[in-house]
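Lecture 7 notes: from sequence to structure.

We start with a single chain of 464 residues. Read the sequence below before looking at the structure.
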Amino acid sequence: MKKNVRYYHITRYLADALAIVVAYMASLATQYGEVIHSFSIVFVALSIFFWYFISVVSKLYADRRSNKFSEEIIFITYNILLVSILLSSSLYFIELNPAYSAKFFGVYLAYLFIFVSATKYFLRKSVHAALHQGKLYDKILLVGSTPAAINYYETINKYYYYGYQCVGVIDEHPTKINGSKYYGNIDALSNVLRTEIIDEVVIALPNSEYNNIQRCMEVCDYHRTKVRILPDLQQYASSAIAVDNIGLVPTISVIELPLDKWQNKILKRLFDIVFSLVVFLTVGIILFPIIAIIIKLTSKGRVFFKQERWGLNNEKIICYKFRSMVQESQDLNEEGKYQQAQKDDPRVTWIGKILRQTNLDELPQFLNVLLGNMSVVGPRPHPTPLNIESMHTVENYMLRHIVLPGISGWAQVNGSRGETKTSNDMQQRVNFDLYYIHRWTFWLDCQIILQTIINILRGDQNAY
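Now the structure, written as tokens:
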């Protein structure tokens, strides 16, 4: 398996070099109508060198097979931006014949983005297909049967594209996790590593069993087997933490929120304004009047729907949407409980169903962004009755209001959108929101926007 993975990583590097050459040749053909006479080895060599050099900084080749492709696109874009700076600076001091214009350079970068993205998408799908067929798996041996171990086991089995396969369990007490093989107690670890093909040992023992954890690590070191420790840190799962040492004593630091820094606040606000204006001046100027006319002609009532929701620091805001339900629909049922939109909800009009499935009903919320009470990306704001209902049943629910709410968010692009039938559904959404709040970066916002667009184009089963 390790040999196959090594070939996979080599292929990733070679594929990018090929994409660079093809992008360069396509640019020559587009700009000059021919390739041979204008071909420059120096240009190609510099492009490939800077690509690999910058990839160390941008972490382009980190294993992201278990993440969404939109994240990989963001890292490709980041890498191309840095390469373009170094390449253009170098070409300024090198006299190439012929000299390439800024237009050629722009075409080259566009082709580079297209070919590299296409190559990585093809490789990703090839890896997922191989994993689905039972190939390329890392064989995992699980030590311990704690709740964290069970959760880990269920996760890697549910999401096969993570690339892990649990071959069995070692524990002081005879146990089976969902039918996995029991190899014995910790004393059997050395024999298992000697007789079985194990790529990685995952230690999921309670934190109190320090001596057993240490024993397992020593055995794995002796057999030169990779070790992963699964500590009991569930309470910090959504927080940004850093592991550090004071002397030989490991410590865990909970890092301050990224959006507490004034420079990040300014960057996010400027991006919100620019992005919203671009949407209004491109998509909005065309779709707004069309959608408004269709809504007015197909059902009675106002075009826009205004609803009270909770924003930053629990302040009440008026959230704007295109009306997607009949005018007579009520937010609360006879028992005074908030009625969330359900699948095949009779209150939703036919045009409203289309608007909800394509997220076009949210377009007016860019006005909220310009007003400053919402952001393009952030935790989705909930109606007041749903907030009141959830704040008493969902852990850390109110913490999602320490940043501006957003039109789209990390929870939504990860499938946690639409109706929350149980408190567990809402808890999952809140956990995603807290993850976003603690790990915000400008590039994460870009990834969420890109993934939102992808979800709109391919459809979302939870959009109704």
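The mean pLDDT is 84. Keep this in mind for problem set 3.
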